Amino acid sequence: MIRWLPLFVFALLAQPAVAQIASRQNAIRPELIAEGPATPGGEVELAILMHTDPGWHGYWLNPGDAGLPMKIEWQLPKGARLGPLRFPVPDKLLVAGIVNYVYERDYALLTRFTVPANARGVVPIRAEAQWLACTDKICVPERGSISLNVPTAMGEATERVRFDEWRRALPRPLASPARFAVRDNKIEIAVPLPASVMVGQPYFFPADDGPIDYAAPQGFRRKGDLLIAELERRRGNPERLSGVLALGDGRGLEIKAIPGQVPKGGQSVGGLGANALFYALFGAMVGGLLLNLMPCVFPILALKALHLAKLGGDESRARRDALAYTAGAIIGTGLLGAALLAIRAGGSAAGWAFQLQDPRTTIVLLLLTTAITLNLLRAFELPVLAGEHNPQGSFGTGALAAFVATPCAGPFLGAALGTALLLPIYGSIAVFAALGLGLAIPFLLIAFIPILRGRLPRPGPWMVRLQRFLAIPMAATAVGCLWLLYRQGGPAALLVGLGVAGALTLLLYLTGLRQRRGQRTGWAAFGVALLLTGVAATQVPRQPQAAARVPLGSEAWSETAVEKYRAAGKPVFVYFTADWCLTCKANEAAAIERQATREAFGKAGIRVFVGDWTNGDPAITRFLEGRGRAGVPLYLWYEPGRAEPEELPQILTPGMLIERALRPR
User: Fold this and answer.
1) Are residues 388 and 416 in the same domain?
2) Which of 102, 129, 155 marks a domain boundary?
3) Is 3 helix (H, G, I), strand (E, B) or coil?
4) Do 291 and 256 lie in a common domain?
5) Kindly report the CA angle at 329 between 326 and 333, in degrees rounded to 5?
6) Is 447 helix (H, G, I), strand (E, B) or coil?
7) Domains: count for the chain
8) 139 and 209 within one domain
9) Which domain holds residue 380?
C-alpha cells in the first residue's frame, strides 16, 4: 500500500488539471512513418514518432513509480504482422521523491512490419493509441488515431537517415547474457562488458515492475570484463531480470539476466577510467603496426625504407623524413576518425572503413593503387613516394599509407576501434591517432636507431627488382578495387573504373617518357590526374543496395535466423565480412571456403551465416557495435547448450574450424 501512495497522491493532484485542459490539443502527438517501400512478403521498419511539446514528457515501457505506458490497438490487413515495439533509452526523472522513466523530448518507437505476401499497391495500417503526457505539475491522458499506407514496391529506403538516428537511440542488444543473484536485500547483476569500454554514470532501468526499488541509489563496480550493478531489492525473488543499462552518455545496453553467480569485489564505477583509454591506445598502436604487413601498405613502407637506404649516413635528413611521415600517418588516421565520428553524430550507422562503402571513395583508391603500381614498375617517378625533395613528400606518404590501410581491422585493432567509438571525443581521436603512430613505428625505428639503419642493404640494382616484386600486391589491391566497384555499382561502375584506370595508366606512361628525357611534367600531370579522379567520382553509378554475397552452403546473416537454429540445438558459425576487407578475403580463401572445411561442416551439421558489410548494412553495424567492434572481420562460433558464442581470432586456419566442427556433442 505504501508503494502506491505516491502514485495515488500524484494522480489526485493531476485530476483538476485534466478537467481544465481536456479540450486542448495533445501535448504529445504521434506520427506513423515507414522507412521506405516494401516488397510483398518482405519487411519494413516503422516508427511511431512522438512529437513532444517543451516541458512535457512521455513514458518508457515501465514508467517507474508513476505514469502509464503507451497502449496501441492495431488494425492490420490479413497476413500482415508487427514485431514488438522497441523503445529508446529513457531518462530518469525525479519529482517530489517519485522516480519516473520518461522522454522529455521527441522520441521514436520502432517496430518491424511484415507485408502480406499477396499485397498489391499500398498496405493500410491503422491504430488507436492511448498515452499519458505530463509536466512536473500536471498529467493528461491523451489518445489519438495513427495511420499509414505502406507502398509495395522495390526501391531505396527514403527515410534511412532519420531511421538510422532513431536506431542509434535504441539500447544495443547484449551479445552475452547477464547473470544475477539475490543477496539479502540486494539484487546484483553481472553484465559482460569489456574492461576497455568506458562508462560514465551508469543506471539500470528495470523493464518489469516489482523486484527493484526505483528510489534507492544504485551502485556499480568493475571486475575484469564484468560491470556489476548493486540494486536495492523491493520484493520477491525474480526468476529472470530484463531492462536497459544506460552507460551515462545516451548509450544503453539491452539486458536479459538469468540466475547465476556474481563475483564479489571489484572497483567502484562512477566516472571514466584511465585504464580503458590506455588499453585502447595500446591496441590501436599495435594494430597499426601490424597493418604494415597488409599487401597495400607494405610496399609503401618498403619504398620508404629504400629511401632511407639511399640517404646512407645522413642522420638528420632521415629523422626529418621519419617525423614528417609519422605526422602524415597520425593526421591521416585522426581525420578519418573525426569524419567517422561526425557521420555517426549525424545519426548514420557507420563503422571503420566507412568510406569504402561509397563507390566514389573506391574509385579514388583504385586510381591511387594504379599510380603506385606504375611507380613501382618504374613507369614514372612519383615524388611523394620517393620523398627526395623535402619532408612534404614524406608527410604525403604517411597520409597515403593511412588512407590505403583502412580496409581492415586486423588483430588488436577491432576491439581498440570499437572502444574508440564509446569514448569521449578527445579519447576517440587519440585512439585513431595512435593507429597512425603504429603505422609509422617501423620507419621511426629505422630512422632513429643507427644500428638498424646501418643494417639496411646498400643501394644497387636489387632495389629495382624489389620494387617490381612489390608491384604485385599493389596491383592485386587495384584489381580488388575493381571488384568492389562492380559489387557497389554493377557493370556500369566497373566500366567507369576500367576506363579511368586505363586513362590514368596512359597519362602516367607518357609522363614517365617525358621524365626520362629530363622534361618537367609534374604539375600538369597532377592536374590532369586530379581532373580524371573528379570526373570518375562524379560519374560512377551506385546501385540502391548491392545484394549480399552468400557463398554456396551458407545463409545470409540475421539475428532472427541465427536464433532459430540455435533454438533447434544446431551448432552455428557466423562470419562478418566485406569485399574491401583484405583480412576477410584471406581468411575466406585460406580457411572458410576450403573443401575440407565444407566437408567437416556438412558432416557435423554446422549452419554457416554470412554478414556482408560491403555496403554498410545498418543491422550489421549495430550488431558489431553491440560486440564492441567497429569493423570487420568478426567470427563467432555458437555451440549448442552455451549461452554465449566463442569469438574466434581474426586470423583463421582450416584446422581451427575443422577441430570445432568435429567436436563430440
Assistant:
1) yes
2) 155
3) coil
4) no
5) 145
6) helix
7) 4
8) no
9) 274-539
Residue 168 lies in a domain: no
Q: Can you say whether the dihedral through the CA atoms of 221, 421, 419, 626 is positive or negative?
A: positive
Contact 587, 651 (CB under 8 A): yes
Residue 271 has a pLDDT of 46
CATH number at residue 78: 2.60.40.1250
Please check whether residues 529 and 398 belong to one and the same domain. yes
End-to-end Cα, the chain, rounded Å: 52
| DSSP state at residue 42 | -
Phi then psi for residue 366, to 5 deg, are: -60, -45
Does 235 reside within a domain? yes
CA distance 368 to 332: 15
93 & 124 share domain: yes
- What is the distance between the alpha carbons of residues 403 and 362, in angstroms, rounded to a whole number? 11
Could you give the CA distance from residue 61 to residue 72 in angstroms, rounded to a whole number?
12
Cell of 313: 649516413
Cell 566497373 belongs to residue: 494
Q: What is the DSSP letter of 35?
A: S
Residues 522 and 504: their CA atoms lie apart, in Å, by: 14
Does residue 172 contact residue 56 with C-beta atoms inside 8 Å? Answer: no
Q: Is residue 259 part of a domain?
A: yes
Burial letters 632-660, b for 16+ CB under 10 A, else e: bbbbbbbeeeeeebebbebbbeeeebbeb
pTM, two decimals, is 0.50
**Per-residue confidence (pLDDT) for residue 2, from 0 to 100:** 38
Q: Residues 585, 575: contact at Cβ < 8 Å?
A: no
Residue with cell 485534466: 18
Quick: pLDDT tens for 506-532: 988 888 888 888 777 667 777 888 888
Query: What per-residue string of b and e applies to 258-278 under the rule 16 or more CB within 10 Å gives b?
Result: eeeebeeeeeebeebbeebbe
The confidence score (pLDDT) of residue 423 equals 64
Dist. CA 231–CA 531, nearest whole Å: 63
| Contact assessment for residue 285 and residue 277, using Cβ atoms and an 8 Å cutoff | no
Q: Of 222, 243, 268, which closes a domain?
A: 268
User: With contact defined as beta carbons under 8 Å apart, do 200 and 272 qualify?
Assistant: yes
Cell of 40: 510483398
Same-domain check for residues 486 and 564: no
Using 70 as the pLDDT threshold, list the residues of the chain that sit under it. 1-24, 175, 196, 249, 270-277, 295-296, 298, 301-314, 340-357, 382-392, 406-424, 457, 459-460, 521-522, 542-549, 626, 628, 630, 665
For residue 123 the three cell numbers come to: 498496405
Q: Pairing between strand 178-183 and 186-192? A: antiparallel
Q: List the one residue out of 221, 215, 257, 253 whose CA is nearest residue 238.
A: 257
Structure confidence at residue 189 (pLDDT): 94
